[in-house]
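Run Transcriptional regulator through structure prediction, thanks.
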Amino acid sequence: MEREELARCLRGWRDRLTPASVGLPAGARRRAPGLRRAEVALLAGLSVDYLARLEQGRAGNPSPSVVESLARALRLSDDENAYLFRLAGHADPRAGGISRHIPPGVRRMLDRMTDTPVLVLDAAWQVVAANPLLIALLGELSAGPARDQNLLWRHFTGVPSRVVATAGQDAAFESAATADLRAAAGRHPDDPLLRGLIADLRRASPRFESLWQERAVSRHASSRKTILHPQVGPLTLDCDVLTVEGSDLRAVLYTAVPGSSDDDALALLRTIGTQFSGSAS
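Sure, done. The structure for Transcriptional regulator is below.
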């Protein structure tokens, strides 16, 4: 019964979305309402075959990370998210944990800020959303395994990045980010995804483990980053962090000094669009 209900919900939630509502082009004429299965699979970082089996009631219970990816891709409300987790046989991590739900106002901001790269992160540095210009700037960050959608996991395990930094800048970022993650752990000690991330980072990265043992606690502030883009070259941008009232979501806006060469490069990136987005490497 739960598997059949899960399948019906996934199909129904997919059918109510439009390509425009999730930042995708409409493409060719559609024979049915809503998103195509391949589009949801792309947004959730899943294979089309696995999503098909879920929608047909032929797959076993999906993992919490898969459920979270589906909830994000399908733009579920908090109540729908809780229902989806229950159908999949898991406790809802939003109950007493980090809320990864994007309020409608933040979603509208992402949709309308077409001239500024915007990245939305949760308290665990997990990518929750990114607008097309951010993807063009940094590459696709919200596809693939859930761990690869986490900025701290990517950094501490050496996943290729377009961000370039000196050793000193890297060290400063690592210290600040680790202290920020400890602050998040203090606010959400029972969040399973956060606890799993910290445990995995401590095992995978001696540098993170060393910083974690320092027990520094603070919130990460705004910064400047240099991005080496394969088509427009290097850009040094201000990264201003805006917090979303009533949640742990953070919107990071990447802007350049008006009239600078970085501003010209960002304008060129707006012109060429996402055709060169590719991976983050």
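The chain is about 45% helix and 10% strand.
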